[in-house]
Amino acid sequence: MTQTIRIHIDREPRESPNPTTGEALYKLGDIAPHRDLFREIGGDEEDELIPRDAKLVELKLDEHFYSQKIFAIIVNAQKKEVVETKLSFDEVVKLAYPIPPDGQNIMFTITYRKGPKQNPKGSLLEGKSVWIKNGMIFDVTPTDRS
Q: Is-contact 40 65, C-beta < 8 A?
């Protein structure tokens, strides 16, 4: 039997049927197409990504969901704050080098660690993106192919 329950999306109280779907939660919270929705999980656990689909989602009274969060990451030993849940190769390079190094043959290598379970560590290739989480570490190295 479906009941109505109060939840919070981006700090706003909302009434939702329970159970509902991820798709319905995105619509209820008016979440932009390029944003993801997360279920807040307490303690040291990672917050849960809610897929934008028809899969059933069981809700709890006064549960909190959010679509934007400030992530503190480390890029070349410097703390950076971002709000996107995914970063592209180019975005990470811009965080590391707001003013790019001189030279027309400059290439960048990006490695990362302490990422979320979708991509805990590895290399970020040009044209690709990675999910991020608080405390994730990126090392961006420029090289001149001359």
A: yes
User: Which tokens in the block code for residue 77?
Assistant: 């030993």
* Residues facing 95 on adjacent strands: none
The reported pTM is 0.60
Report the C-alpha gap between 22 and 9 in whole angstroms: 12
Question: Using an 8 Å Cβ cutoff, are 128 and 88 in contact?
Answer: yes
Model confidence pLDDT, tens digit, residues 127-143: 999 999 889 999 999 98
Handedness of CA 32, 35, 37, 43 (dihedral sign): negative
Contact 47/68 with Cβ under 8 angstroms?
A: no
